[in-house]
Amino acid sequence: xxxxxSSNAEMAVRQNxxxxxxxxxxxxxxxxxxxxxxxxxxxxxxxxKSLWNLIVNLGTMDENAIMLAVLSLIDVVMIANLLxxxxxxxxxxxxxxxxxxxxxxxxxxxxxxxxxxxKVKLSMxxxxxxxxxxxxxxxxxxxxxxxxxxxxxxxxLGFLVSALAMAWTDKIVYSTSHKVH
Length: 181
Hints:
Layout: H1 2-24, H2 30-57, H3 63-95, H4 115-139, H5 146-177
C-alpha cells in the first residue's frame, strides 16, 4: 500500500512539473512580440518617409497623386494599429497581464480583451486595410489590370464573409455558453 501511495505522489509531482513547463512555454512568444515592436518601428519610419515625400513633392502632385499618397499614409497607420492590437491584445491574452489598469492611456478595449474580442478587432482591421487598398486601386483603375481589380475585390469580399462567419460563430458560441440554466 505504501509503494502505491509513493508512486501516486511521484506521478503527481511529474504531472505538476509537466503542467508548469507547458504553462511557462507561453513565454516563448515573447521574442515574437518583441519582433512586432521592431516592425512597428519600421512602419513608423515608413510613415515619416512617406509624409516627408508628400510634403516635398506637394507642389508637383495632382489631386489623384495627393489622394493616393494620403491613402498610403492611412494604410500605414491602420497596419500600425493592427500591430498594436496584436501586440497588446495578444500579449495580454496569451502571455501575461500588462498591469496597466491605473495608466491614463490604457486602451478602453484592453479591459475586456479575450481571444474572441481580439479576433473580431483583427478581422475588422484587416477589412479596413483591404478597403483602403481597394480604394487606391479604384482611384488608379485606369493603370491597373482588370483581372487585378477583380481579384482584389474578391479578396476583400472574402475578408468580409470570413468576418461575418467569425462573428456569427462567436454569437452562437457565446449565446449557448451563457444561457441561464
